[in-house]
Amino acid sequence: MKFLELIKVVDESVHWGSYSFLKCQDIYRLSRTKLKKHLLARNEPILGNKKQLIEKLLISLEDERLQGIAYAEELERKHRMVADLEESGAVYVVGSNQDGQLGLEDLDHRKSFTVIPSTRGLKINHVACGNNITFAVTEDNIVYTWGGAGVGPSGLKVEENDIPFHKPHKLENLDGEEIVKTTVGSKHVCALSEGGDCFIWGNGKFGELGLGSTTSHLEPILMNSFRKQDIIKDVVAGDKHTCALTVKGEVYSWGHGASGRLGIGITERIGVPNSEKFFFPAPALVKKLPSSQYMKQISCGTEHVIARGTSRVFSWGSGDGGRLGHGDHSNRFSPEAIVLLDSWNVFEISAGTWHSACIVQIPPLKDSGWVYTWVSGLVICIIESIFLCYSYML
């Protein structure tokens, strides 16, 4: 047998009885031998005359076609169901995962965004990331956490600290507290409720828990350090300090006071042990913010803070790298207005590790604008290239 003829025979043998092969064939013109081979390949009986064999083959192929349609529809239904669950508020993650912070039940890094399967259908509407730990809050006010290598500030019950840290776990201690957001510092976490209650846990050695001591707490504990009339609107964790914003537009700060990051005008306490003189373990009111400026938003960086008022933006803390936006590298121990932003309508601010940023509304745009950033001595730099991207995101 010639080589090409052998290839033809082998190729035909692969397709005996298959729908993909026969759908392009004129079955009425097939020989009785080929009809029987196709029926045998499909586990169909081969008794009868040629007309009966053709009918059996056609019926068998139609059954396969309908089953294929049903299977495709089932796959599409399952895909749509999964897609609907993800669209309702699933979490996608990317990046380093050495401590399980991606929640994918392994310690492998990811170079592209990957959905956390167990978050499908949870209706997550808030996510907060720390150095190696993540928290998520659902629209039903349920808090989930993962990562931290099993030793991070997860807030889980002490007896549950040995559970797998590389997948999401419900934070039972906050059940029923109506939590709406969390914020993560280097080793401490805060959670804010709908009613303005502030829960806090984690490392407290720098006073960052605001409980009046430098004691650490593994599980969430309600802060009772504010005045009775204070209702907390927002809380933000820095590296070793924390700030809270009240519904009256006042700002509290506590924790490590180095470089002026607390904004209270002093960086050390008199009459306390040297080991704790830089730590302010109870909330202190940032009094130097003008009463004429109702504070709408606060943001904590590693060692500095930005506050957005009615018409002005203020910053304080470490000025290294020009992160305060005042045109120099000097620290500010009390709030100081960023003069170059006075003539702009700033509606979003963010303090990073070595830089800061804001979004400025540009008429006639209503809910979007240009992103400005300042860092390394460059007082104000515009990033026009991401303008359209941010506009569409909003």
Summed up:
The chain is of the alpha+beta class. It contains five helices and 22 strands. It has three domains: 82 residues, no CATH class; 111 residues, no CATH class; 107 residues, no CATH class.
> What is the beta-strand fraction?
25-35%
Task: Name the helicity range.
Answer: 10-25%
Structural class: alpha+beta
3D shape: elongated
SSE arrangement, N to C: HHHHEEEEEEEEEEEEEEEEEEEEEEH
Number of domains: 3
Assembly category: single chain
What ranges have pLDDT less than 50 throughout 5 or more consecutive residues? 1-14, 382-394
Total strands: the figure is 22
Please summarize the sheet with the most strands.
Answer: 4 strands, antiparallel
The total count of helices amounts to: 5
Radius of gyration: 32 Å
Distance between the termini: 70 Å
Mean pLDDT: 88
Q: How do the strands line up in the largest sheet?
A: 3-4-5-6
Structure, described:
With 394 residues, the protein is α+β, with helices and mostly antiparallel strands. The protein has three domains: 3-84, no CATH class; 177-287, no CATH class; 288-394, no CATH class. The chain is built from five helices and 22 strands. The protein has helices spanning 3-15, 19-22, 32-41, 50-87, 387-393; strands at residues 92-95, 110-115, 124-129, 133-138, 143-147, 169-170, 179-184, 188-193, 198-202, 217-222, 232-237, 241-246, 251-256, 279-285, 297-300, 304-308, 313-317, 332-337, 346-351, 355-361, 369-375, 378-383. It is elongated and about 110 Å long. It starts with a helix and ends with a helix.
